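Per your request, structure below.
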């Protein structure tokens, strides 16, 4: 009976694979690359308060700055500290818990290799090691640190490594890059929240938000990314339900970001189709030419979380994007009575609006400040 049972089991397993295709996905391994290029950036809070239960160096040369980096690869996260090699000058010593033992006193200080474009000190990609399911996992972190003349300090984080490789899509190879877009050590955070997800780049194109689906050569593929980015699984999706999105006249291009991924469409008769699911408006573009033939482009982006919408296969959804836009006067007050003014364009949903002419910025508007009694007048 055992051979017969084994045969029946194999037949049933083959039917299951044919019906669902879920077991047909194979791990396609990617290679890890170290980089100094800042692919994505996240601010990290700094404090001068020493962290509790962390063994610190016995001596600091200045008031140290501490920061805690949260990562999906270690529930404890990692602590780091910036110090100076002398009592004055730049903060040029970095202590970081590279091994996860909760100590900074047994780590040698790292020195910067140069200056960043932000004007702050720049360290080489810092190598961190985590415990993975199949052994150690290596990750690199960039930490641009900057201080101002007033003594304020700021810290940015950026992934110091990415995964890439040739991936098979239905018999055709495409180059894939996986980017830790939210700088938390993992590479499989999906775009249910566009502000906190990872990114994927296809064949050298601009990175896009990672989702459950990836559109390649006009076809949808279901993708699954390893948490540490080491491999990707790809399966052609043949059962994707599509819904209709209706847009105002004049929209030349529309991008949506959501749980399924990121999709850019050019409307036909004011409509686009998207896989059914939850999305947020990513951006829209309006292209026009004036009477002299100059090409103008209006682009709306940086939408708030309230710009979400749902796509269903059986019910079209209409979105109010595009014109009109308005010019908003915004001000920020600093110490010493200094006030900064901005005149940005805003759209219907408070998104940022950029207007260009022939791929260049047109002359900015002028702001005139006049006191009530007329004794003060300033034009910028």
């Amino acid at each position: 009976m055992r051979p017969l049972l084994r045969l029946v089991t194999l037949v049933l397993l083959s039917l299951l694979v044919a019906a669902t295709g879920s077991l047909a996905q194979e791990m396609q391994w990617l290679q890890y690359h170290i980089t100094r290029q800042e692919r994505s950036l996240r601010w990290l809070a700094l404090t001068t308060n020493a962290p509790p239960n962390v063994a610190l160096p016995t001596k600091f040369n200045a008031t140290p700055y501490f920061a805690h980096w949260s990562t999906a690869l270690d529930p404890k996260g990692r602590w780091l500290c910036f110090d100076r090699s002398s009592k004055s000058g730049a903060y040029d010593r970095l202590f970081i818990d590279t091994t996860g033992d909760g100590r900074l006193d047994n780590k040698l200080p790292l020195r910067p290799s140069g200056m960043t474009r932000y004007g702050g000190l720049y360290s080489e990609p810092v190598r961190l090691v985590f415990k993975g399911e199949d052994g150690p996992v290596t990750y690199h972190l960039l930490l641009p640190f900057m201080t101002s003349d007033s003594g304020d300090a700021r810290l940015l984080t950026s992934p110091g490594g990415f995964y890439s490789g040739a991936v098979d899509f239905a018999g055709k190879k495409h180059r894939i890059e996986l980017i830790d877009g939210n700088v938390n050590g993992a590479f499989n955070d999906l775009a249910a929240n566009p502000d906190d997800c990872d990114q994927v780049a296809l064949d050298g194109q601009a990175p896009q938000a990672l989702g459950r689906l990836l559109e390649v050569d006009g076809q949808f593929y279901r993708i699954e990314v390893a948490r540490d980015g080491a491999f990707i699984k790809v399966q052609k999706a043949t059962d994707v339900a599509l819904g209709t999105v209706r847009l105002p006249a004049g929209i030349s291009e529309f991008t949506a970001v959501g749980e399924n991924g990121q999709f850019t469409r050019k409307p036909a008769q004011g409509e686009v189709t998207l896989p059914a699911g939850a999305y947020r408006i990513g951006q829209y573009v309006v292209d026009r030419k004036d009477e002299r033939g100059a090409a103008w482009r209006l682009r709306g982006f940086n939408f708030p979380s309230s710009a979400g919408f749902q796509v269903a296969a059986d019910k079209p959804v209409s979105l109010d994007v595009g014109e009109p836009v308005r010019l908003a006067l915004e001000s920020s007050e600093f110490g010493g009575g200094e006030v900064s003014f901005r005149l940005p364009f805003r759209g219907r949903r408070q998104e940022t609006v950029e207007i260009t002419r022939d791929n260049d910025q047109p002359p900015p508007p002028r702001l005139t400040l006049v006191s009530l009694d007329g004794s003060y007048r300033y034009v910028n």
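The chain has three domains: 24-32+162-236, 40-159, 241-380.

Regards,
D.
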